[in-house]
Amino acid sequence: MKSNILIIGGNGMVGKTIARIFASRNPNSNIFIGGRKPGKTENDLIIDVTKPQTFQAILNHKIDVIVLSVNDKGDHILRFAIENKIDYLDITKPTPDLTRAYDFAKKQSINSRIVFSSGWMGGIVSGLINSFSGQMKDIQAVELFVYYSVKDLAGESSAHFMAENVAKPFVNYQNNTPVSIKHFLDAEPFEFSFGIGKRQAYNFDVPDLYILNKIEKVPNVSVKMTYNSKFITWLLGAFQKIKLFNILSLKERKMVFGSSGNGDQSVFEIVVRTKNENKKISLQSTKGQAELTALSAVLHGEELLKNNHDNKIYFSHQLYQDSSLFESLNAYETINIQVTE
């Protein structure tokens, strides 16, 4: 049976990559691209997340799964999916938008699969933890370390998020207590894998902080990141210390974070601590963050299509049993995963 998949934001960098990977792995599916402007084929649909009157095209084409790869601050697509009983997968939301959307969805009558997948790189961190760490209830702490290269291909959304939020405090969790912190402060040395070596890593806000603490009840959760350039990493920390980001305009902050290169590796490492052991899960995407995020979205979409899941709200890691997510990621030719005790 053919499935109709709609990628809203499918003309963006990640959206195009989702379409490419999904088509190569699922040749029997119909893939529709939703964007604000007309396209060249009958599978290009005009769908503007700020204009609900354009959503009729979703019903006209009998869409089975909506993949949202553009920020929908008004949650119009989420509301439409719930009202019309259509499966929904969102990979775009920063933490404040995610918590608001989740709180809204919990109050609704759900008759489809509503999947929030806005954690780091398409929401795979918690899934990898599940693959290697048994039950979440036994975990005392999770530390996520991110290596970000300014040479990597990057879309506008991540740069815009940083520009909008870099001067705002956010929280990590210590003994189940939210602790207010800011980006690029509280440096911590960390030995990265894949030849990167020791780097200073700084505070960084991703939705995994909320997901791991509030949903999976891990009492201690922190996220830190480093850039491929040690100078840039230091400079951003210095800007934060002197509160320069507070006086820069949004346009100027976008210029600071808006660089994009021709491609580079993307790496993140998860340190999982239980009472009895510490474990490090290291992942490298040799084709960068856009490829990894898109692959994650495709895997989640395939999971919805191929396996029976009840109609309810999920975070993406909750779709998988045992090590199935790890096995799917590890089978992809540009992904390398290492696990060390």
UniProtKB/TrEMBL annotation:
InterPro entries: NAD(P)-bd_dom_sf
Matches recorded under SUPFAM superfamilies: NAD(P)-binding Rossmann-fold domains
Native organism taxonomy: Bacteria, Pseudomonadati, Bacteroidota, Flavobacteriia, Flavobacteriales
Highest taxon of the lineage: Bacteria
Organism: Chryseobacterium polytrichastri
UniProt name for this protein: Saccharopine dehydrogenase
